[in-house]
Each structure stands twice: as C-alpha cells, then as structure tokens.
Amino acid sequence: MRKALAKIMVAVAVVGGGVLTASSPASAAIGGCSQGYGGLHTTGYLVCYTGSGQYQVRVTCDNENPFGRDYYRYGAWVPVTQTSTAACSNGDYAYNLYTRLLTDL
Fold first, then answer.
1. CA–CA separation, 102 vs 28, rounded Å?
2. Which residue, 22, 54, 60, 82, could crosslink 102 as a Cys pair with Cβ 3.0–4.6 Å?
3. How far apart are CA 97 and CA 105, in angstroms?
4. What phi-psi label fits residue 87: left (phi over 0), alpha (psi between -120 and 50 degrees) or beta?
5. Does any domain span residue 85?
6. How many angstroms separate the CA atoms of 58 and 67, rounded?
7. Quick one: which H or E segment has residue 15?
8. In this predicted model, what pLDDT tens digit does every residue of 53-90 receive, in sequence order?
9. Is residue 63 part of a domain?
C-alpha cells in the first residue's frame, strides 16, 4: 500500500511540475521539469532541472494500423539536466507522456 501511494505521489508531483520529496532516504526528488513532443508529434521528451536521481520518459504510441494496438516507448534513464527522449515506430503519433523515476522500480 505504501509503495503504491508513493508511486501515485510521484506521478502527481511530476505532472504538476512540482518537487517531489519522500520520507525514504533512497527516494529521488526532481523538479523544474519540461516535457513536450517533437518530430511532428512522433517523439516525446522530458528534462528536469532540479533535484537528484534518474528518470525516463514513457510515451504511448498510436498505432496507425486500424487493427494494431497502441504501445509504449521508453527513453533512456538520465540524471537531472539531461533529456530523455522516446520515439514511436514508423512515424506513429506520440501521446500521453509519463515520467518514471528509477526509485519506482
């Protein structure tokens, strides 16, 4: 239950652009984040400028095939001030950016 609550707090804090703090000494805190889309909306990016720890961006990709399923693409794990970028395959449309912290695993 506590781990699930911590994950929810991470998602809310990152989406809101706020700084995340947690009671566990192993937890990361990031803030000052900027995210968006590039490449005609086929990639997603995330960069955070304050805090510590590592993070990555995850995008949901819209499979343009009418019978295909949407799928996830993940960017590289990066430290604060570096950009994590995830690209969809074959020019598929990227949407629904999500931030993952290394401590969530």
1. 8
2. 54
3. 18
4. beta
5. yes
6. 23
7. helix 2-15
8. 999 999 999 998 888 899 999 999 999 999 999 999 98
9. yes
Answer yes or no: is 57 within a domain: yes
97, part of any domain = yes
Count CB-CB contacts under 10 A for residue 93: 16
Cα angle vertex 98, ends 77, 48, to 5°? 55
- Closest to 72 in 3D by CA, of 58, 82, 52, 89: 58
Angle, vertex CA 102, rays to CA 99 and CA 105, nearest 5: 100
Q: How many domains does the chain have?
A: 1
Distance CA 74, CA 14 (A): 17
